[in-house]
Amino acid sequence: MSDDLHHPDRGxxxxxxxxxxSLRAHVRARAERIEPRRRLFALNIPNSAPTLVAAAFLAxxxxxxxxxxxxxAHLAAGFGVLLVGYVGFMxxxxxxxxxxxxxxxxxxxxxxPGGQLLWFALATALIGGGFAVVVxxxxxxxxxxxxxxxxxxxxxxxxxxxxxxxPALAAxxxxxx
Length: 177
Hints:
mainly alpha; 2 domains
């Protein structure tokens, strides 16, 4: 046998029935089994989560007595956050987490237009940054992946009570029980 059959770069993979694509897939699958051990929580936000969050808002006009103009303004706010997030995603070359941007757009539908969106984005950044620093200090590593969805959820919970929709939802709650 020639040396080419035993050298991994020249033919050993072919002699065992592997092609380059299946070898890459095997290495990728192996890396995916190892990678979650390094992660604190699951980092992927499924596309259904922001969609369900935004769709749940569509019941609000019936519960809180909002007009269709208000609903349109809230949907436009969510679309605006999605658009700004998409532009930021493209400008950073994918450096911003797309799942987080979609989740923030879904939550922005609930917040509606106004200054609350700015506070929501700022609170998400501060809470997420603080969370990342704490996790890095605890894990004593700088290369750990930190989920941002909990930061967005906490920022949303802190921001929602200051929105105009909150009193309408609070007033409608006793009628639902």
